[in-house]
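name: query_chain
kind: protein
chains: 1
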Amino acid sequence: MGTLFYGDSGTPIGIEDRALAHLKVAIVTKLRRGESFTLSWTHDDDQPRGRTTIWIHQSIPLRFVFDEPERPELSVRWIEELMRSANSTGGIQLVPEHLDNAPAEVTTQPVGDGEPVVVGVDASA
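structure:
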């Protein structure tokens, strides 16, 4: 389980390493462009019922900590979904990853088409 440290909050955000690695690529790409957005997730079963949303902005300190020393293989498809999600009015919605062994379909839709995209973390973790 990786950890996202955001701002002055004393509460670290636990996110499975694979999901955190993908999320890091999307977040860093957006922040390099000077773009702000929201990141939302539903609470785990061991937390009070509900969901959380944070505003991601380049002026707020951010740190990614991974438990595993090796970087996981990244999925271009998942990163593209995260980027589309970040460009939507709902921001990134962090939910379990949907693994698909079938070949990915090629799409010509531009990133930021306004459609929310469901993204995720490994539900088995």
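note: The chain has two helices and seven strands.
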